[in-house]
Amino acid sequence: MNAFDYKQMRAVSMADAEEVKKALARADFPSCEYSFPNLFIWAEVFRTCLAFFNDRLYVHMPLVDELLFPCGETWPSPEELKAVSEGMRKAGFSGTVAHVPAAYLEQHPEITEFFSIRPMDDANDEYIYCTAVLAELHGSKLSKKRNLISQFERNHEQYEIRAVTSDDFRTLISLTEHWRRDHLDDQRVENERCALSRALKYYNELGFEGLMLLAEGEIKAYAVFSRLNSQSYTVQFEKALHECKGASQVITNRTAVHLRDKCKFINREQDLGIPGLRQAKLSYVPDHLLKDFFLIPQE
After folding, report:
1. Which of 77, 90, 203, 207 is most buried by a 10 A CB count?
2. In whole angstroms, how far apart are CA 178 and each of 85, 175, 184?
3. Mean pLDDT of 107-114
4. Are residues 255 and 199 in the same domain?
5. pLDDT for position 209
6. What is the pLDDT of residue 184?
């Protein structure tokens, strides 16, 4: 097995888009971590870099020392992961591999010769929803969502849902800044602001789509999303005015209606360990939570 040299890693850039997208498409992973738009818009925050090794894409985020499980036509052998992990450790990093699919561990029980296996923290679980369920909101578990949407519609007879265009970017930023005032001490919110700024700057090039909810001529909510894999879209950003009851439920529902003919599933990403966010995501009755694993090198 060839040695892996961390010096092969380079910063993620738009010039990598086509090559990276091809690798991601071959793997077709359901995790939101395997989206070129996500890798790119968060690259400045996490200093994300990448390299191809044995025809597989490896991505590392030095700021949090997270090495993503690689993607390509086939899965890597345990020996290849060991070689990459050793190269990472020589460069001063942990050598831990993140977001390892459970199916890989089942197919390669011999991986324990080189690594210890540990489930990723619950904060990294990804919420995967059936698009049709979010679009239709049938059943007693989702009755509160239907009621809040009805309340919004009664209070705002003249409301509008329309696609986001470049002319709307300042409006989206304005709503985000309004929401951010209540979270000024949270670095995660500042990081998200940076990622949104980059997403809007390269909106068309990255293939983003978006919807905005307007009432009385003012924005009440928005969502920005993109294709993730052959079956899924992922919602990168969603914001609503807290004081506008029902706005959040309307934008979530109408995003699903918009995507119903485009994808089977919607990945609404992680809750980051925020209790209120976890409760909100669970309240929409996810189809399942995606749980991945760490591979921690043996000493």
Report:
1. 203
2. 43, 5, 11
3. 97
4. yes
5. 98
6. 60
**Number of other residues whose CB lies within 10 A of the CB of residue 277:** 15
Q: Which residues lie below 8 Å from residue 224, measured CB to CB, with a gap of 6+?
A: 164, 172, 196, 199, 208, 209, 210, 235, 236, 237, 238
Mean pLDDT confidence for 125-135? 97
The residue among 96, 124, 152 that closes a domain is: 124
Strands 115-119 and 97-100: unpaired
- The SS3 of residue 225 is strand
* Orientation angle between helical segments 247-259 and 143-155, nearest 10 degrees: 110
Q: For residue 279, tell me if it sits in a domain.
A: no
pLDDT at 190 over 90: no
Does residue 30 belong to any structural domain of this protein? yes
Look up the domain containing 173 and give its range: 126-269
The enclosing domain of 175 has a CATH number of 3.40.630.30
Looking at the fold, whether 114 and 175 belong to one and the same domain comes out as no
